[in-house]
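Notes for week 9. Today we move from apo structures to complexes. The key idea is that a small molecule is not decoration. When we ask for a structure prediction with zinc ion present, the ligand SMILES becomes part of the input, just like the chain. The input block below holds both the sequence and the ligand string. Read it once before you look at the output, and try to guess where the molecule might sit.
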Amino acid sequence: MSRVMMRCPYNWTQEIFTGIDIPRKGALAGFGNKVVECPICKNHHYLRRLYFEGDPVTPAETDVYALDVAYGFAGEVGVLISVMALIEDYLAMLLAKLTGADGNDARITMGTFYNFSHRVDLLEHLAQQESKDSELRKDILSFVKKIREANNARVKYAHAKYSVGAELKVHVEPFYGDARKKKKTIVMAVDDVARDVELVKAVSRELHGFLYRGERPKR
Ligand SMILES: [Zn+2]
């Protein structure tokens, strides 16, 4: 039997025992949802970048990034991105509802625009063609505003540079590589991301209600 080891993501020079002892020919896979309490930093870590005790350690085991440390934070960002993928599909359904196009045609039309905000612009321009007192126009334009807010939450995380400070607070520098944006650093705890996730989920729930159950959006 050999002890399965990993590096503390908070201090990658420190080796920790994962509590797993398996034959050397055993695969180091399938432990991804397990956690170990770290004797070095006292946090809990998901088991990642595992190796057997005594094996040579390469950068694959020691190359640790900020969100490797702040795993809960990374998980919330992942949830947010997955909900936005649903909203992307709802955009095509809104287009179909607005124009009467068949679902597949609407999906191809929307999917031809690579840029998310151009897809929302298309929907807005088409909705504006409807008469001013059309309820559908009002509903779609209300969704356009909400979807833009949700997308702003997404791009904040998708194009950020991350680092980790005290108490696992994450320092987020949104649009780090964008020369047109002013540089700023936001210090965030995992609850702060969870609030953005809830904002995006609320938009998704409302779209779902509108598209599948005919419920009107709140304005
Ligand atoms: Zn640790």
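Residues 2-64 form one domain.
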